[in-house]
Design a protein that fits this description.
641 residues, alpha/beta, Aconitase, domain 3, Aconitase, domain 4, 7-stranded mixed beta sheet, 27 strands, 19% strand, globular, binds FE3-S4 cluster, lyase, Aconitate hydratase, EC 4.2.1.3
Length: 641
């Protein structure tokens, strides 16, 4: 039987285990990336492990999330990351260089290599034929320390592409279509592998848009073959030497197949408030638009922004629309400035903002109350824009640009405007934004820790009896944004868990933090897909700080489940989902004989007041059991030293 491309790459990196769906394996990690909002924790953990020399081929620390520096806190974080990066042999990308995934694609991604990033959109690298996985910060710290990462082998879902996209239909519409078909849970436990004749009609930046939003499917990662288009992209970046051709075997067998005819797709939008709430622009109708935001790690490539510039050229942004554009990297911004595209944007009335995450993470440009905001980003969860009652629609750069001109949601296919074909350009090498580590001598490299950097909370060994009272009864699809908001108020405190914990779950229940402090030991009841969204481990560390012992939910998102285990918090799944309705705030739950029970696939919980018993599925791997018994990953590592 032939092999899938995903399994070929995994096989090349296999360190331990048998490569078959559901098995636990350890794989070699070639590259890591961190961004600033998760990065401070990663490097605090790396320091705590006492690592002498990182084991990856290349690791980069990016500053892209919180670049506003409205107070000393951001600057302290940046300085800490810069100093610790220098000490451990990690490249440091200064604020202003751009967004981590765009920069990794341009400068460091290599087909066939593995990348682990402390950001859920790390799979963007799959556009270059990498196995690029988003993970919790601790996993990334460990990958740097040990050069490996352990995971449960996912199934492989093939998306077979045929045909060719028509003008005004773009890669964003492809992934929105896939999201419409599979939903935000459709990729859980899977690698999405793109194949078929249609692949060669898509550029690397198109492919990267698609693999970027594979994160919204809940997929472990997504991957494209590496072909002549990959070679052309690498050549444009001055890195043709990194090219290697990669594809699945012709007779590869897949666990599932989804067929997509690119020629039949139309411009789409994800309606509020979920990336899979997708419909065609025509069906949604001509709603009035207040704000258009173009950029983010999904759609800020050179080709994306050149299309936007061409649409805006000689036109004017509608008087009622605020249009903001953030390029993905300093290289792209410099190229747009050189070739006049930037002038086309500015002359049309666009606001050019820094090449960083910016409004995607709610750092500025929050829309007005009740606004309709069209965004080329990847997430439209309620409140993520910073405005709770705003309606955010996720669209392609083409749809965003033409709608900014017309002032209404517009299907470009019927606009009568002709779109020229945009080709990738040659880029000049420029590493002026990169600080290189100096050798491996750490003796004269001090780590700089300002007053905003607080140690991360540590759990204790799992006791024989785990008790807690229900402090939250949450619904389905709770996001990590819901658990630990990351808006502009709080981003400066990403390295200060005691402060952040005061805001845990504040969007859902503003008394949560106080209730936890009163309860001492807490239990969270959750619905389906608990912890979806970003990889931020703060969503586990803040509950840990507040004394949460376990989360009992109908199902968990993959990265958040790992983050909970890393923190020594038990993620338990209802054996009978009907039990979900049985719980109320304040009710006590106890796990007796917990140290033995965690080794079993099913755990018995008891309501000590009524004596009623509940079954919960645990199914922890051997490694997870060791971590839970030790009270989290760092304790486990220390125990093994
Ligand atoms: Fe940044 Fe938004 Fe991507 S926060 S990394 S641009 S999802």
């Amino acid at each position: 039987m032939g092999k899938t491309l995903a399994y070929k790459i995994l096989e090349n990196h296999l360190v331990e285990g048998v490569l078959a769906p559901g098995n636990e394996i350890t794989m070699k990690i070639d590259q890591t990336l961190t961004q600033d909002s998760t990065g401070t924790m990663v490097y605090l953990q790396l320091e705590a492990m006492g690592v002498e020399k990182i084991k990856t081929e290349l690791s980069v620390a990016y500053i892209d999330h919180n670049t506003l520096q409205t107070g000393f806190e951001n600057a302290d974080d940046h300085e800490f990351i810069k100093s610790v990066a220098k000490r451990h042999g990690v490249l440091f990308s200064k604020p202003g260089n751009g967004i981590c995934h765009q920069l990794q694609l341009e400068n460091y991604g290599i087909p066939g290599k593995t990348l682990l990033g402390s950001d859920s959109h790390t799979p963007t690298g799959g556009g270059l034929g990498m196995i690029a996985i988003g993970a919790g910060g601790l996993d990334v710290a460990l990958a740097m320390a040990q050069g490996t990462y352990s995971l449960t082998v996912p199934k492989v879902l093939k998306v077979e592409l045929t045909g060719k996209l028509r003008p005004w239909v773009s890669a964003k519409d492809v992934i929105l279509y896939v999201l419409q078909q599979l939903t935000v849970k459709g990729g859980v436990g899977k690698i999405v592998e793109y194949a078929g004749e249609g692949v060669k009609t898509l550029s690397v930046t198109d492919r990267a848009t698609i693999t970027n939003m594979g994160a919204e499917l809940g997929a472990t990662t997504s991957v494209f073959p590496s072909d002549e288009n990959t070679k052309a992209y690498l050549a444009a970046q001055g890195r043709e030497k990194d090219y290697v051709a990669l594809s699945a075997d012709a007779d590869a067998e897949y666990d599932e197949v989804l067929k997509v005819d690119l020629s039949s797709l139309v411009p789409l939008a994800a309606k509020p408030h979920s990336p899979d709430n997708v419909d065609s622009i025509t069906n949604i109708g001509t709603i009035k638009v207040d704000q258009v935001a173009i950029g983010s790690c999904t759609n800020s490539s050179y080709t994306d922004l050149m299309k936007v510039a061409e649409i805006l050229k000689g036109k004017q942004v509608h008087p009622d629309v605020s249009l903001v554009i953030s390029p993905g990297s300093s290289k792209i911004l410099s190229k747009l400035a050189e070739n006049g595209a930037l002038a086309s944007m500015i002359n049309a009335g666009a606001r050019i903002i820094e090449n960083a995450c910016g409004p995607c993470i709610g750092m500025g440009q929050s829309p007005k109350s009740g606004a309709v905001s069209l965004r080329t980003f990847n997430r439209n969860f309620k409140g993520r824009s910073g405005t709770l009652d705003a309606d955010v629609y996720l669209v392609s750069p083409e749809t965003a640009a033409i709608s900014a001109v017309t002032g209404i949601l517009t299907d470009g296919m019927v606009s009568g405007v002709t779109l020229p074909e945009i080709k990738e350009e040659m880029f000049n090498f420029n590493d002026n934004f990169i600080v290189y580590p100096k050798g491996t001598d750490k003796s004269n490299t001090d780590v700089v820790m300002g007053p905003n950097i607080k140690p991360f909370p540590q759990n204790t060994k799992l006791p024989e009896i785990v008790t807690g009272s229900v402090v939250l009864h949450a619904g389905n699809n709770i996001t990590t944004d819901d658990i630990m908001p990351s808006d502009s108020r709080l981003l400066p405190y990403r390295s200060n868990i005691p402060f952040l914990a005061n805001y845990c779950f504040e969007k859902i229940d503003k008394d949560f933090s106080a209730r936890c402090k009163e309860a001492g030991a807490g239990v969270i009841i959750g619905g389906d897909n608990y912890g979806q969204g970003s990889s931020r481990e703060h969503a586990a560390l803040a509950p840990l700080y507040l004394g949460i012992k376990f989360v009992l939910a109908k199902s968990f998102a993959r990265i958040h489940r790992s983050n909970l285990i890393n923190s020594g918090i038990l993620p338990l799944v209802f054996d009978d989902p009907a039990d979900y309705d049985d719980f109320a705030l304040g009710q006590k739950l106890v796990i007796e004989n917990a140290r033995e029970q965690v080794k079993n696939p099913v755990i018995l919980l008891k309501n000590p007041e009524t004596g009623k018993e509940y079954k919960a599925i645990s199914k922890f791997s051997e490694q997870e059991i060791e971590m839970i018994l030790a009270g989290g990953r760092i304790n486990q590592i220390k125990d093994n030293e």
